[in-house]
Amino acid sequence: TTIQKTFDGYEFKALSSDSAPANGKVKEGDSHVVYVYKKKTPTPQPKTGNVDVKYIDEDGNVLEGPTQVKTNAPVGEDYTTIQKTFDGYEFKSLSSDSAPANGKVMEGDSHVVYVYKKKTPAPQPKTGNVDVKYIDEDGNVLEGPTQVKTNAPVGEDYTTEQKTFDGYEFKALSSDS
Asked: pLDDT tens digits for 17-44?
């Protein structure tokens, strides 16, 4: 009697064509029982991939991330990333070596990289102030100064009025007005 054994990574195929039977009676001379094994075909592992996303400025400074979007996901599975907003920055483009913002998982690692540029501060509008004062020919203040416009945009209209004062008559606007 012989025993069919098991071996890791192999499976029994058959007795060799010139083998003696696995079990039998002893015969004169030599008898050889030969078990033939075949190497097992490994079960193919499904292909997987990883996707991450990060947000950087034009100088490569990280604004956020990297953050995993997919980990060991099957190749072909859909993924989605989001174009975010950051104070003081505006979206410029995806990096030249970035994976698409939305797509399908590829084998290995994929990196989605959003690039932002600093916003140029909006130019502050030019403004001015206007006040009115009434003086006599000697520079003595009769009234004012009174604010007519404060931080008004340049070019904005304003009005003042010519007033009357007892004992005085209007002569002219001051030359330094």
From this structure: 999 999 999 999 999 999 999 999 888 8
Q: What angle do CA 37, 40, 44 make, to 5 degrees?
A: 175
Q: In what order do the strands lie in the sheet with 89-94?
A: 62-74, 48-57, 108-118, 89-94
C-alpha to C-alpha distance for 158 and 131, rounded to whole angstroms: 10
Rounded Cα–Cα distance for residues 52 and 39 (Å)? 39
Terminal CA-to-CA distance of the chain, rounded, Å? Answer: 126
Q: Backbone dihedral region of 139: left (phi > 0), alpha (psi from -120 to 50 degrees) or beta? A: left
**Closest by Cα among 37, 20, 41, 39 to 29:** 20
Rounded to two decimals, the pTM is 0.52
Using CB atoms within 10 Å of the CB of residue 63, give its burial: 0 to 12 exposed, 13 to 18 middle, 19+ buried: middle
Q: How far apart are CA 158 and CA 155, in angstroms?
A: 9
Q: What number is the average pLDDT over the span 116-140? A: 90
Q: Please, which residues have CB within 8 angstroms of residue 22's CB and are 6 or more apart in sequence?
A: 1, 2, 4, 15, 33, 35
**CA of residue 121 relative to chain centroid, distance:** 22
Which residues partner with 28 through β-bridges?
none
CA–CA dist 142, 139 (Å, integer): 9
